Amino acid sequence: xxxxxxxxxxxxxxxxxxxxxxxxxxxxxxxxxxxxxxxxxxxxxxxxxxxxxxxxxxxxxxxxxxxxxxxxxxxxxxxxxxxxxxxxxxxxxxxxxxxxxxxxxxxxxxxxxxxxxxxxxxxxxxxxxxxxxxxxxxxxxxxxxxxxxxxxxxxxxxxxxxxxxxxxxxxxxxxxxxxxxxxxxxxxxxxxxxxxxxxxxxxxxxxxxxxxxxxxxxxxxxxxxxxxxxxxxxxxxxxxxxxxxxxxxxxxxxxxxxxxxxxxxxxxxxxxxxxxxxxxxxxxxxxxxxxxxxxxxxxxxxxxxxxxxxxxxxxxxxxxxxxxxxxxxxxxxxxxxxxxxxxxxxxxxxxxxxxxxxxxxxxxxxx
Length: 367
Description:
Layout: E1 5-9, E2 11-14, E3 17-20, H1 22-26, E4 31-36, H2 43-56, E5 61-65, E6 73-78, E7 83-87, E8 103-107, H3 114-118, H4 121-157, H5 162-177, E9 188-192, E10 194-197, E11 200-203, H6 205-208, E12 213-218, H7 225-238, E13 243-247, E14 255-260, E15 265-269, E16 284-287, H8 288-292, H9 297-300, H10 302-339, H11 343-362
Parallel strand pairs: 1-5, 4-7, 4-8, 9-13, 12-15, 12-16
Antiparallel strand pairs: 2-3, 5-6, 6-7, 10-11, 13-14, 14-15
Helix pairs in contact: 4-10, 5-7
């Protein structure tokens, strides 16, 4: 029977630039393979094929997706084996808090004809510059969109009943945790709920919440959704349960979801661009607007809200277009590097990694 595959992002194109949460998913590993190499040199191929093989062997795997390339992967983690494979090339800055002997650097440049690449170095440099420029334009656009979003939030914050929000929070602390306390230190995993990608906003909520009791938080910008999630996460950590914390792919300072698998629940911001509606018998809605916002706020500020929404949507659309344009340059770079790569050599490197992982499988580690 195939193992469970969890899909998520650990890097994001955000209003604060490229944001990196990779180290969180790598905590506790005893073996980490860090792949280095240009685009198109086989990093995703190694990650995907080894991940698929281990999933077929029944292991749970975590697939870490790439925000700037919908077809690529940033890494795979096999928690039971305490093994991971991660793409360590820019813009990813991988500084895991692991013993030096646990980290194996794998240089895929050894499979590349560097002479062939050197003959196209001017073209490569130009494509890298254009790719970088498009990303900087996207980040600048997201930052402007966040400023507009703050205007949106201000309307609802001004009409919010904070006492009601506190009461709702206490209700859900009791509902979700009851009197349970675990005599252990929590493991806390920081990830992104979704990401801004060349194909627009992408998330893996259905996959991540499969088999869990789901609470879909509805509300408006500034109606307290992130604050509720932060307090619920803090309570879980205080009680010693393992908590998966999913940050907003637009503003990493905000939270969009927490999952506590030990207690079987997920609670998440279910508004655009990750809007979901109850489609499972056990799904429940948490309505922050009706509980915490002064009635009639939507109607009283309808004109201002419509103007803000239009400016926000337009700015986001332009920013996503820059990611789409950047992907064109990335694809050209991939073509150049792939033409200079000996993929038989890449497969040999993959086999060496598989062999080492097989040795770990045959020598179970102590938990």
